[in-house]
Predict the 3D structure of the following.
Amino acid sequence: MEVRIATLGILIGQLAATAFATDTVASRQATDRGRELRSQLDQDAPKWLAEFAIPSVSIAGIEDGRIVLVAAYGVQSAGVAATPQTLYNIASMTKPISAEVILCLVSKGQIALDEPMHPYWVDPDVANDELHKLLTPRLALNHQTGFPNWRRH
């Protein structure tokens, strides 16, 4: 399923990148492009969902910090249409988003890759182990924290 979601994400990303390709534009132009993208998605998204056997997708377009598009396609369960409020279990897809946020903070000088993470947050599962003070963003991004892949429940 993750491959199908990633494939659909790439297709939608390509369409969105084409629609939002300019650097800075007036609000009206952003709204117009949001309408154009919505029109194109209204045509293409249902076909992509069927082609890749994906039940639903929700999409948002953001430009200059403003939401210019919100759309949902498909069903969240039998007979229930997906909406922009539909919750998705996205599993490992959060990893690249987290990595991008960390690297943006590094590029702005707000954190350093080799500074300890414990002043910001400590997972309760390792709070009593002094080794948690050695963890850095670089180690986490390189999957070198030493944590097991799955936690016990």
Summary: The beta strands are 56-63, 66-77, 80-81. The chain has two domains: 2-89, 91-153. Confidence is low (pLDDT under 50) at residues 1-11, 13-26. The longest helix spans residues 27-51.
